[in-house]
Design goal:
heterodimer, A: mainly alpha, three-stranded mixed β-sheet, two-stranded antiparallel sheet, 15 helices, B: six-stranded mixed β-sheet, 17 helices, globular, binds adenosine-5'-diphosphate, binds magnesium ion
Chain lengths: 427, 519
């Protein structure tokens, strides 16, 4: 066991590293500001205006917010000046603990400058765009919560992609056959839970390498859903038109201007994600179940010596994770298009694992990263309309590049639970 | 009043080992029973049976006159038995409170953790037994001594009144051990009963009310601290008369073989573990490096042997700079290395003994001609070394992993010492070994010193340091805080230095004071 230590000179050494890091961030902020000016303000005519719509959906005329019109050049320049000032202060004095907040701020300004530039002399619906961001973030958040449930108890689950895909298909199929969306959703969750249990048995009982077990499930899910889809769902349309859950505006909250339309006028998947987010957070950090699960994920032998059943704890968490992933899988069919298409999850399960890691295995961190990824997806859609001369694929890459940079430099090392992925051997 | 705990005929087999052989044992209310035995005697196994981690093949457990069955730690806890394991069972990223309440959580509203109530009880227990610790601290931020307190609090929190402490002093300085003994005294004064496991004779005599000696899975004797002597206990423990002192001649140091100048080394998590260390080791002398585990000794040895990059400073072996040298270059300069962790760094456990004996010379003649290994030559050399170093193995093709710890260590010693060397770096050379193997390895090390080899011996066991060294360097938090002549050093003096007390504040011991080294 490592016992040592912070000597005076270690502190000096870390202090030094800290200062260097502060400087580097100062420079980064200023470079971002300059790039922002060079890219988004330099060639913009002073008289152009960017117009952002602030209403989402059918808002009665009386409650509509007027469009938000801002001078393109002036806005970008102002944001550049503020960013540069932040950078200068960072370089001279340093924001200390607030550095990452400042990084977020500067990044946000950069993105907004970009939007302002792209919208010069045009209009986009900002509220609509943010709403798309939220709904894209929903399956990612659910997938990440599923991952957190498993990994906090020490089981790596890269099968989330496969779980969501199978769940999406079962939701469409059962929903169509029974003409009942709720039964479809239930079937989705059970399918996913069953697959998760299979992963659990392989990795907890038979101590199979968890990456391999997860990969097997992913390949299996891709194969079987594609097969069923092409043989049945695409041939007999009545097996593949389950319909979707309708949006249900939450009474008071949905009336909040701007915010209401974005967050509180969706279907049960979005609300379910909100609820699960809070439940998982509170459950992990404030209940007996959570304490035990985390202990099992960090030091299973210690938990065992205190009479905690390591195997049962892991099974419970893996199956709970399966249910959550199944709920997230249902989103793809019952929450958006109402039908199943081959491989429609398109890697979202893996991206949700990235969100989990970026969020340092915490529910809110994961949801935050899911929102960033969701924003990138919605931005891509909008830019196609605005005819921005950047290939949309590059924009899609941006958040992941940002993630890698952030993971490497800012967030510090993301440390997984200590026993993550290690099978437990009873003596 | 019946004894609080009785074990009758406990027997436990492991594949190929009879770890416990019909063991009977009695613990009375309010006493400290010391369970003394060499490494591998079966002490931990017996306690794990009592605690429900192992199921015995035979035997029964009687608590307060009632026979109980213990299928899991839950049963043991219910019967009032608690255990501090040899390797701590604490979750580093959780707080003291969370670790203590884990498994017996107090709740509010039937769902939520009641950390406040738990912390309050911890403070109460701290006060009652003199076990001060901050309930809100994270385990990973606490030094080992405090972690041990947390382990004891864990037992008391569960209302255990039979406390098992498995080698609790292994990670402590002598002064910290004395602190622990005080706590143990206060615990029995308040009605608890303690089984105290150790292989250190001094401790047994210092704290036990009664002593049971275990050897090869059997209870071989009982003694009281008044009547027993160290040599009597040692011979009971080992089964024959043992030399308590290592005989060596006066050192005749020659030229400096190893010179280290202001060395700084980081560990994997980029903590500065070696913080400006300078020293030299001369031919024909043994420099002992003492210190509590985790004070930079591991990183120092890894840097010296080329296994870990250095941050700053320079190192020279026999005049050649080796600051950035590869391990092979270091080996070829005539350095032998007995690594701290013999299983992961010293041997390839899945290889036969013969191959393990040539791990650092396999590419040289006569073991290789060009790229072709010379199997007959390797086997001939292996047979010779197994014979010469008394390695007890069924054959030279037996895998190293199936040998006992002592014989594994002998394989390493055989490999490292049977070629011409100028410097021997021995890290924890006898950790976890039986007395016979310890004696043997010590005599080999001293033989090398007599042959003019420079020796750097790193150990966390003060007895070992005192037995081997000519000079002793004490490491604390990455620095060498003092270097003393071994004949002037006492355990108490070194213990204070190891605990971080500045040398200016301690009066060095008188010259010529008797130093006893006991295993
Ligand atoms: N889990 C195990 N599997 C196989 N053998 C074991 C196991 N635990 C201990 N042993 C063996 O049982 C014997 C007693 O070990 P142990 O009880 O740990 O000794 P002690 O605690 O007295 O040092 C040793 O020979 C050891 O190798
Ligand atoms: Mg032991």
């Amino acid at each position: 066991m490592a016992t040592v230590t912070t000597t005076v000179s270690t502190r000096m050494l870390t202090e030094q590293a800290h200062q260097t890091r502060q400087r580097v961030f100062g420079v980064v902020f200023i470079v971002i500001a300059l790039a922002s000016y060079w890219l988004f303000a330099r060639n913009v005519d002073g008289g152009l205006v960017s117009t952002f719509g602030l209403n989402q959906g059918n808002v009665p005329a009386a409650e509509r917010l007027p469009d938000w019109e801002i001078p393109s050049y002036g806005t970008v320049t102002a944001l550049v000046v503020v960013s540069a000032a932040v950078g200068a202060y960072q370089l001279a004095r340093g924001f200390g603990r607030a550095t990452s907040v400042m990084l977020g701020l500067v990044a946000l300004f950069f993105v907004f400058s970009f939007l302002t530039w792209a919208t010069r002399d045009q209009a986009i619906n900002l509220a609509g765009m943010l709403k798309t961001m939220v709904s894209r973030a929903v399956p990612l958040t659910l997938g990440a919560l599923s991952g957190i449930l498993c990994e906090r108890a020490g089981v790596v689950n890269i099968a989330i992609e496969g779980l969501m895909l199978s769940a999406a298909m079962m939701a469409a199929l059962v929903g169509s056959v029974t003409h009942n969306l709720w039964i479809g959703l239930l079937a989705a969750m059970l399918t996913s839970a069953l697959l998760a249990l299979f992963h659990g048995v392989l990795s907890i009982k038979y101590k199979v390498d968890q990456i391999i077990s997860g990969t097997v499930i992913n390949i299996f899910a891709a194969g079987i859903t594609s097969f069923i889809s092409s043989k049945f769902l695409q041939v007999f349309q009545e097996l593949n038109n389950a319909g979707t859950f309708q949006a249900y505006p939450i009474p008071v909250l949905s009336k909040i201007p701007f915010i209401g339309g974005i967050f509180f006028d969706s279907n049960i998947f979005t609300y379910g994600a909100y609820v699960l987010l809070i439940v998982v957070h509170v459950g992990l950090f404030y209940t007996r179940w959570g304490l035990r699960a985390r202990a099992v994920g960090e030091h299973p032998r210690a938990a065992d010596t205190l009479g905690i059943n390591v195997f049962r704890t892991r099974y419970v968490n893996v199956v709970l994770g399966g249910l959550v992933a199944g709920f997230g899988g249902g989103y793809f069919t019952l929450g958006s298009v109402g039908r199943f298409d081959e491989l429609m999850t398109a890697g979202r399960g893996f991206i949700s694992l990235a969100a989990m890691i970026f969020g340092k295995w915490t529910p809110f961190g994961a949801a935050g990263s899911a929102l960033i990824f969701g924003f990138a997806e919605s931005l891509q859609g909008k830019l196609a309309i605005l005819k921005v001369p950047i290939p949309s694929q590059f924009l899609l890459m941006a958040p992941y590049i940002a993630t890698m940079i952030a993971l490497a430099g800012v967030v510090g090392r993301a440390i997984p639970p200590a026993a993550d992925g290690q099978p437990y051997e009873k003596q | 009043m019946p004894p609080i705990l009785e074990l009758h005929g406990i027997t436990k087999h492991f594949p190929g080992v009879l770890a416990n052989d019909h063991i009977d044992l009695t613990l009375n209310q309010g006493e400290i029973l010391a369970l003394l035995g060499e490494n591998g005697a079966g002490k931990s196994t017996l306690m794990n049976v009592l605690y429900g981690l192992y199921q015995p093949d035979q035997g029964e457990i009687v608590v307060r006159g009632k026979r109980i069955t213990v299928h899991s730690p839950n049963d043991a806890i219910a019967a009032g038995v608690g255990m501090v394991h040899q390797h701590f069972m604490l979750v580093p990223v959780l707080t003291v409170t969370e670790n203590v309440m884990l498994g017996v959580e107090s709740l509010t509203a039937g769902v939520f953790l009641d950390r406040k109530a738990a912390a309050a009880r911890i403070r109460e227990i701290s006060k009652q037994y003199g076990l001060q610790v901050d309930p809100e601290a994270y385990i990973k931020d606490l030094p080992v001594g405090l972690q041990q307190r947390v382990e004891i609090i864990k037992l008391l929190y569960r209302h255990a009144d039979i406390l098992i402490l498995d080698e609790p002093t292994a990670v402590l300085t002598p002064q910290e051990a004395d602190e622990l003994f005080k706590v143990m005294r206060s615990l029995v004064a308040q009605g608890k009963s303690i089984i105290f496991i150790t292989h250190k004779l001094r401790e047994v005599l210092a704290v036990a009310d009664r002593i049971d000696v275990l050897r090869l899975g059997k209870v071989v004797g009982e003694a009281g601290p008044k009547t027993a002597t160290e040599s009597l206990l040692a011979s009971m423990m080992v089964g024959r008369q043992v030399e308590l002192r290592v005989h060596k001649t006066v050192a005749k140091p020659g030229e400096a073989v190893l010179r280290v100048n202001d060395l700084r080394v980081l560990d994997d998590r980029e903590n500065l573990m070696v913080d400006g260390v300078s020293f030299e080791v001369r031919a024909g002398e043994i420099l002992g490096v003492a210190g509590v585990q985790g004070n930079g000794q591991t990183e120092l040895v890894e840097a010296l042997t080329g296994l870990r990059p250095t941050l700053a400073g320079r190192m020279f072996i026999d005049g050649h700079e080796v600051t950035r040298a590869s391990p092979r270059r270091v080996v070829e300069l005539g350095v032998a290395h007995i690594p701290e962790d013999r299983q992961s760094d010293g041997l390839v456990l899945s290889y036969p003994v013969a191959d393990n004996l040539v791990l650092n010379t396999y590419y040289l003649p006569p073991f290789a001609r060009g790229v072709v290994m010379q199997q007959p030559e390797i086997e001939r050399a292996a047979a010779e070394r197994v014979e010469q170093f008394d390695v007890r193995t069924p054959g030279i093709q037996t895998t190293a992993g199936s040998l006992s710890g002592g014989n594994q260590q002998k394989v390493i010693v055989a490999r490292e010492l049977s070629r011409p060397i100028k410097l021997l770096i021995a890290a924890q050379p006898t950790r976890g070994l039986d007395v016979g193997s310890i004696e043997y390895i010590h005599s080999r090390i001293i033989e090398k010193r007599a042959a003019g080899c420079a020796v750097l011996a790193v150990s966390t066991e003060l007895d070992e340091i005192l037995a081997l060294s000519d000079r002793i360097a004490v490491m604390y938090r990455g620095r060498i805080v003092a270097t003393v002549e071994a004949r002037r050093a006492t355990k108490e003096y070194l213990g204070l230095l190891m605990a971080g007390v500045s040398p200016d504040q301690i009066a060095p011991p008188e010259e010529g004071e008797e130093v006893q080294a006991v295993f």
